[in-house]
Predict the structure.
Amino acid sequence: MIRALAFASAVAAIAVAPSFALAQYSKNASRAAQEGIFIYRPTTPSGNIQIQPRAGLSAASQRGVFIYPLNSNGNFTVPPRSGVSPFLRPNRLFNQPLFLADGTQQSNAFIDRVSPNAIVVNAEGELFTVKPDADANIEVVGMATRDFLKPGQLVKFTGKFDADGKSITPLDQLAVVSLRPGDKAGATPFSDDDNSSAAKKSADPAENSPTSLAVLGRINSILGNTLTVGTGTDVYKVDIDSNVKVDLNTSDFSIAQPGDKIAVSGYISKPGVAQAKEIKITLAKPARSKRPNSTP
Protein backbone atom coordinates (compact mmCIF):
# COMPACT_ATOMS: atom_id res chain seq x y z
CA MET A 1 0.00 0.00 0.00
CA ILE A 2 1.44 3.30 -1.10
CA ARG A 3 1.32 6.16 1.34
CA ALA A 4 1.18 9.80 0.36
CA LEU A 5 4.63 11.35 0.22
CA ALA A 6 5.69 14.48 1.99
CA PHE A 7 7.03 16.23 -1.09
CA ALA A 8 8.31 19.32 0.70
CA SER A 9 10.49 17.24 2.99
CA ALA A 10 11.70 15.11 0.10
CA VAL A 11 12.74 18.09 -2.02
CA ALA A 12 14.57 19.66 0.91
CA ALA A 13 16.37 16.38 1.58
CA ILE A 14 17.45 16.08 -2.05
CA ALA A 15 19.17 19.44 -1.82
CA VAL A 16 21.51 18.30 0.97
CA ALA A 17 21.96 14.55 0.57
CA PRO A 18 25.28 13.50 -0.97
CA SER A 19 23.92 10.54 -2.96
CA PHE A 20 20.17 10.17 -2.59
CA ALA A 21 17.30 11.43 -0.46
CA LEU A 22 14.83 9.16 1.25
CA ALA A 23 11.20 10.23 1.45
CA GLN A 24 10.25 10.49 5.10
CA TYR A 25 7.34 8.40 6.30
CA SER A 26 5.14 9.02 9.28
CA LYS A 27 6.56 7.45 12.42
CA ASN A 28 3.34 5.45 12.61
CA ALA A 29 3.72 3.95 9.12
CA SER A 30 3.71 0.16 9.05
CA ARG A 31 6.72 -1.82 7.83
CA ALA A 32 4.71 -2.80 4.74
CA ALA A 33 4.09 0.85 3.97
CA GLN A 34 7.78 1.60 4.40
CA GLU A 35 8.65 -0.95 1.72
CA GLY A 36 7.18 1.53 -0.65
CA ILE A 37 8.45 4.36 -2.79
CA PHE A 38 11.82 6.09 -2.52
CA ILE A 39 12.75 9.33 -4.24
CA TYR A 40 16.34 9.42 -5.53
CA ARG A 41 18.55 12.31 -6.52
CA PRO A 42 17.97 13.20 -10.20
CA THR A 43 20.59 11.65 -12.48
CA THR A 44 19.02 12.31 -15.88
CA PRO A 45 19.89 15.38 -18.02
CA SER A 46 16.35 16.65 -17.60
CA GLY A 47 16.67 16.63 -13.83
CA ASN A 48 13.52 14.59 -13.34
CA ILE A 49 12.90 12.96 -9.98
CA GLN A 50 12.19 9.29 -10.56
CA ILE A 51 9.98 7.33 -8.20
CA GLN A 52 11.60 3.91 -7.93
CA PRO A 53 9.21 0.94 -7.89
CA ARG A 54 9.72 -1.51 -5.10
CA ALA A 55 11.22 -4.90 -5.82
CA GLY A 56 8.87 -7.54 -7.15
CA LEU A 57 6.66 -5.34 -9.33
CA SER A 58 5.86 -6.52 -12.85
CA ALA A 59 7.58 -5.00 -15.86
CA ALA A 60 4.30 -3.29 -16.83
CA SER A 61 4.02 -1.68 -13.39
CA GLN A 62 7.60 -0.47 -13.61
CA ARG A 63 6.82 1.70 -16.63
CA GLY A 64 6.59 4.18 -13.89
CA VAL A 65 5.38 7.58 -12.96
CA PHE A 66 7.76 10.52 -13.09
CA ILE A 67 7.24 13.67 -11.04
CA TYR A 68 8.67 16.74 -12.74
CA PRO A 69 10.07 19.82 -11.00
CA LEU A 70 7.50 22.42 -10.04
CA ASN A 71 6.44 24.47 -13.05
CA SER A 72 5.42 28.13 -13.14
CA ASN A 73 1.97 27.47 -11.68
CA GLY A 74 3.31 25.30 -8.89
CA ASN A 75 1.83 22.03 -10.11
CA PHE A 76 3.44 18.63 -10.51
CA THR A 77 2.88 17.14 -13.97
CA VAL A 78 2.37 13.38 -14.14
CA PRO A 79 2.49 12.22 -17.77
CA PRO A 80 0.99 8.91 -18.88
CA ARG A 81 3.37 5.99 -19.11
CA SER A 82 4.48 4.77 -22.50
CA GLY A 83 1.94 2.57 -24.24
CA VAL A 84 -1.18 4.03 -22.62
CA SER A 85 -3.99 4.57 -25.12
CA PRO A 86 -4.25 8.25 -26.14
CA PHE A 87 -7.97 8.05 -25.37
CA LEU A 88 -7.26 7.30 -21.70
CA ARG A 89 -4.82 10.08 -20.95
CA PRO A 90 -5.53 12.41 -18.01
CA ASN A 91 -6.34 15.47 -20.14
CA ARG A 92 -9.20 13.47 -21.62
CA LEU A 93 -10.80 12.73 -18.26
CA PHE A 94 -13.89 14.25 -16.68
CA ASN A 95 -16.20 16.31 -18.91
CA GLN A 96 -13.75 16.68 -21.78
CA PRO A 97 -13.96 15.71 -25.46
CA LEU A 98 -12.97 12.07 -25.97
CA PHE A 99 -11.75 10.12 -29.01
CA LEU A 100 -10.11 13.11 -30.71
CA ALA A 101 -7.87 12.76 -33.74
CA ASP A 102 -4.27 13.65 -32.90
CA GLY A 103 -3.68 17.38 -32.86
CA THR A 104 -7.32 18.28 -33.47
CA GLN A 105 -10.57 18.87 -31.65
CA GLN A 106 -12.46 16.65 -34.11
CA SER A 107 -13.84 13.27 -33.09
CA ASN A 108 -12.20 10.31 -34.75
CA ALA A 109 -14.73 7.71 -33.61
CA PHE A 110 -17.50 5.75 -35.26
CA ILE A 111 -20.29 3.57 -33.93
CA ASP A 112 -19.55 -0.14 -33.91
CA ARG A 113 -22.90 -1.25 -32.48
CA VAL A 114 -25.76 0.01 -30.34
CA SER A 115 -27.43 -1.62 -27.34
CA PRO A 116 -30.42 -0.31 -25.34
CA ASN A 117 -28.26 1.37 -22.67
CA ALA A 118 -24.89 1.91 -24.31
CA ILE A 119 -23.01 2.53 -27.54
CA VAL A 120 -19.89 0.63 -28.55
CA VAL A 121 -17.50 3.04 -30.23
CA ASN A 122 -14.56 2.26 -32.50
CA ALA A 123 -11.81 4.83 -32.08
CA GLU A 124 -8.83 4.05 -34.31
CA GLY A 125 -9.34 0.33 -33.86
CA GLU A 126 -9.94 0.46 -30.08
CA LEU A 127 -13.42 -0.40 -28.82
CA PHE A 128 -14.99 1.58 -26.00
CA THR A 129 -18.39 1.19 -24.38
CA VAL A 130 -20.02 4.61 -24.01
CA LYS A 131 -22.68 4.84 -21.30
CA PRO A 132 -24.77 8.04 -21.19
CA ASP A 133 -25.30 9.67 -17.79
CA ALA A 134 -28.92 9.91 -16.70
CA ASP A 135 -28.92 13.63 -17.55
CA ALA A 136 -26.69 13.37 -20.62
CA ASN A 137 -27.37 15.72 -23.53
CA ILE A 138 -27.84 13.42 -26.55
CA GLU A 139 -28.23 14.72 -30.08
CA VAL A 140 -28.77 12.53 -33.15
CA VAL A 141 -28.83 14.51 -36.38
CA GLY A 142 -29.33 13.52 -40.00
CA MET A 143 -32.05 12.65 -42.46
CA ALA A 144 -34.78 10.01 -42.61
CA THR A 145 -36.93 8.43 -45.30
CA ARG A 146 -40.69 8.90 -45.55
CA ASP A 147 -41.38 5.44 -44.09
CA PHE A 148 -39.49 6.38 -40.89
CA LEU A 149 -42.49 8.41 -39.72
CA LYS A 150 -44.75 6.62 -37.25
CA PRO A 151 -47.36 7.39 -34.55
CA GLY A 152 -45.90 8.67 -31.28
CA GLN A 153 -43.06 10.64 -32.82
CA LEU A 154 -42.68 14.31 -31.95
CA VAL A 155 -42.59 16.37 -35.13
CA LYS A 156 -42.07 20.02 -35.97
CA PHE A 157 -43.17 21.81 -39.13
CA THR A 158 -44.59 25.02 -40.52
CA GLY A 159 -47.48 25.47 -42.92
CA LYS A 160 -50.72 27.24 -43.76
CA PHE A 161 -53.92 25.90 -42.22
CA ASP A 162 -57.62 26.56 -42.60
CA ALA A 163 -59.98 27.22 -39.72
CA ASP A 164 -60.44 23.45 -39.18
CA GLY A 165 -56.70 22.80 -38.76
CA LYS A 166 -56.24 21.23 -42.21
CA SER A 167 -53.10 22.06 -44.18
CA ILE A 168 -53.74 24.09 -47.33
CA THR A 169 -50.83 22.64 -49.30
CA PRO A 170 -48.80 19.44 -48.78
CA LEU A 171 -45.71 19.81 -46.60
CA ASP A 172 -42.40 19.29 -48.36
CA GLN A 173 -40.35 19.31 -45.13
CA LEU A 174 -40.74 18.42 -41.45
CA ALA A 175 -38.49 17.33 -38.62
CA VAL A 176 -38.61 14.48 -36.12
CA VAL A 177 -37.35 15.95 -32.84
CA SER A 178 -37.11 15.41 -29.10
CA LEU A 179 -38.55 17.78 -26.53
CA ARG A 180 -35.71 20.00 -25.30
CA PRO A 181 -35.64 22.32 -22.27
CA GLY A 182 -37.84 25.31 -23.05
CA ASP A 183 -39.81 23.53 -25.78
CA LYS A 184 -43.58 23.30 -25.47
CA ALA A 185 -46.00 21.47 -27.72
CA GLY A 186 -48.44 23.74 -29.52
CA ALA A 187 -49.05 25.88 -32.59
CA THR A 188 -47.55 29.35 -32.86
CA PRO A 189 -48.80 31.85 -35.49
CA PHE A 190 -46.09 33.50 -37.52
CA SER A 191 -45.82 35.84 -40.48
CA ASP A 192 -43.15 36.99 -42.89
CA ASP A 193 -43.87 40.61 -42.00
CA ASP A 194 -44.77 42.63 -38.93
CA ASN A 195 -48.43 42.88 -39.92
CA SER A 196 -49.26 39.39 -38.72
CA SER A 197 -52.15 37.77 -40.55
CA ALA A 198 -52.61 35.72 -37.38
CA ALA A 199 -53.24 38.91 -35.45
CA LYS A 200 -55.86 39.90 -38.01
CA LYS A 201 -57.45 36.47 -37.70
CA SER A 202 -57.67 36.75 -33.93
CA ALA A 203 -59.20 40.21 -34.32
CA ASP A 204 -61.77 38.92 -36.81
CA PRO A 205 -62.67 35.27 -36.10
CA ALA A 206 -65.04 35.20 -39.04
CA GLU A 207 -62.21 35.71 -41.52
CA ASN A 208 -61.46 32.50 -43.46
CA SER A 209 -57.99 33.31 -44.77
CA PRO A 210 -55.32 30.64 -44.06
CA THR A 211 -53.18 31.02 -40.96
CA SER A 212 -49.44 30.36 -41.00
CA LEU A 213 -48.48 28.19 -38.04
CA ALA A 214 -45.34 26.63 -36.57
CA VAL A 215 -46.52 23.34 -35.05
CA LEU A 216 -44.81 21.10 -32.49
CA GLY A 217 -46.81 17.98 -31.68
CA ARG A 218 -47.02 14.18 -31.77
CA ILE A 219 -48.19 12.07 -34.66
CA ASN A 220 -51.48 10.47 -33.67
CA SER A 221 -52.02 8.53 -36.88
CA ILE A 222 -50.85 8.15 -40.46
CA LEU A 223 -53.32 7.38 -43.26
CA GLY A 224 -51.74 7.38 -46.68
CA ASN A 225 -50.01 10.74 -47.03
CA THR A 226 -52.03 12.40 -44.25
CA LEU A 227 -50.66 12.84 -40.74
CA THR A 228 -52.88 13.65 -37.78
CA VAL A 229 -50.81 15.61 -35.28
CA GLY A 230 -51.93 16.50 -31.76
CA THR A 231 -50.48 19.27 -29.62
CA GLY A 232 -52.42 18.48 -26.45
CA THR A 233 -54.96 21.22 -27.10
CA ASP A 234 -55.52 21.03 -30.87
CA VAL A 235 -55.37 18.51 -33.69
CA TYR A 236 -53.98 19.25 -37.14
CA LYS A 237 -54.33 17.23 -40.34
CA VAL A 238 -51.28 17.53 -42.51
CA ASP A 239 -50.82 16.27 -46.05
CA ILE A 240 -47.20 15.50 -46.87
CA ASP A 241 -45.54 15.44 -50.24
CA SER A 242 -44.51 12.02 -51.54
CA ASN A 243 -40.91 13.28 -51.61
CA VAL A 244 -41.09 15.01 -48.23
CA LYS A 245 -37.74 15.87 -46.65
CA VAL A 246 -37.54 14.44 -43.11
CA ASP A 247 -34.88 15.99 -40.87
CA LEU A 248 -33.78 14.40 -37.60
CA ASN A 249 -32.73 16.11 -34.39
CA THR A 250 -33.57 13.67 -31.64
CA SER A 251 -32.15 12.20 -28.44
CA ASP A 252 -33.04 8.63 -29.45
CA PHE A 253 -29.68 6.99 -30.13
CA SER A 254 -31.34 3.63 -30.87
CA ILE A 255 -31.74 4.77 -34.49
CA ALA A 256 -27.96 5.00 -34.94
CA GLN A 257 -26.22 2.44 -37.15
CA PRO A 258 -22.66 1.07 -37.43
CA GLY A 259 -20.49 3.58 -39.26
CA ASP A 260 -22.27 6.68 -37.94
CA LYS A 261 -19.89 9.31 -36.61
CA ILE A 262 -19.99 10.01 -32.88
CA ALA A 263 -18.55 12.78 -30.68
CA VAL A 264 -18.48 12.26 -26.92
CA SER A 265 -17.73 14.52 -23.96
CA GLY A 266 -17.34 12.84 -20.60
CA TYR A 267 -14.75 10.83 -18.73
CA ILE A 268 -13.19 7.37 -18.68
CA SER A 269 -14.75 5.53 -15.72
CA LYS A 270 -12.54 2.45 -16.19
CA PRO A 271 -10.43 1.01 -19.01
CA GLY A 272 -12.57 0.59 -22.10
CA VAL A 273 -15.62 2.33 -20.61
CA ALA A 274 -16.58 6.00 -21.03
CA GLN A 275 -19.27 7.81 -19.06
CA ALA A 276 -20.85 10.40 -21.34
CA LYS A 277 -22.14 13.85 -20.44
CA GLU A 278 -22.74 14.83 -24.07
CA ILE A 279 -23.16 12.71 -27.19
CA LYS A 280 -23.61 13.87 -30.76
CA ILE A 281 -24.23 11.31 -33.49
CA THR A 282 -24.23 12.23 -37.17
CA LEU A 283 -26.00 9.66 -39.30
CA ALA A 284 -24.05 8.43 -42.31
CA LYS A 285 -27.22 7.38 -44.16
CA PRO A 286 -30.89 8.37 -43.90
CA ALA A 287 -32.71 6.52 -41.12
CA ARG A 288 -35.30 4.03 -42.33
CA SER A 289 -38.17 2.25 -40.69
CA LYS A 290 -37.33 -0.98 -38.89
CA ARG A 291 -40.88 -2.20 -39.38
CA PRO A 292 -41.27 -5.23 -41.69
CA ASN A 293 -42.65 -4.66 -45.19
CA SER A 294 -42.19 -0.89 -44.98
CA THR A 295 -41.38 1.03 -48.14
CA PRO A 296 -39.55 4.36 -48.52
